[in-house]
Amino acid sequence: MLYEIPGDYRGWVVVRFERADCPALPARGIFRVVSVSRSGNACTSSPLRVTYTRFEYVYQDGRRKFLPGTGGGDDSTEPMAYLLTYRAANNALIVFIGNKHELENSGPDPARAP
Hints:
Elements: E1 2-6, E2 11-16, E3 27-28, E4 31-35, E5 41-43, E6 54-58, E7 64-67, E8 80-87, E9 92-98, H1 100-104
Parallel strand pairs: 1-4, 1-6, 2-5
Antiparallel strand pairs: 2-9, 3-4, 6-7, 8-9
């Protein structure tokens, strides 16, 4: 899965899977591509398939920047992708894009409600 995040976005990302009212994920090479909106949301009728996950910033001029993943122990000021949880009740994958300080001060994740 390739998650395309709008360039320099920081904050919560909520991706809802298996939604009949949303399009299937397109393929690009070996990846299924999830394009996240500027509001941090995405939805798809496709199921979540966890194999290899990659996060990238995508800028309006076409540039891309790899976002490393982390388990939460890094004190860098650079943004990272914190893959936090999958909520089966509403088929939502919850990710935070930012640094550890931003995550710690972001409040509860926005996908607690169905």
